[in-house]
Amino acid sequence: MITKRDGSVAQDVPPGLSYAGVCKRYGQFTALDGISLDVGPREFVTLLGPSGSGKSTLLGLAVGSIEADAGHIAIRGVDVRRLKPHDRNIGMVFQRYSLFPNKTVEENIAYPLQIRKIPKPEVAARVAAIVQTMGLGAQAARYPAEISGGQAQRVAVARALVFNPDLLLMDEPLGALDKRLRADLQQEIRRLQHEFGIPTLYVTHDQDEAMYLSDRIALFNHGRIVALGTPRELYENPASAWEASFLGDANLFAAEDIRISAGECSAVLTGLGVAVRTQAPRTQHEHMQVMIRPEYVHIGDNVRDDMTRFKARVIDVIYLGARQRVTLELPGAIRLIAELRPWETPGEPGAEVLCGWRDHHSRVVEA
Ligand SMILES: Nc1ncnc2c1ncn2[C@@H]1O[C@H](COP(=O)(O)OP(=O)(O)OP(=O)(O)O)[C@@H](O)[C@H]1O
Question: Where is the ABC transporter domain positioned along the sequence (predicted)?
Answer without folding.
Answer: 17-247
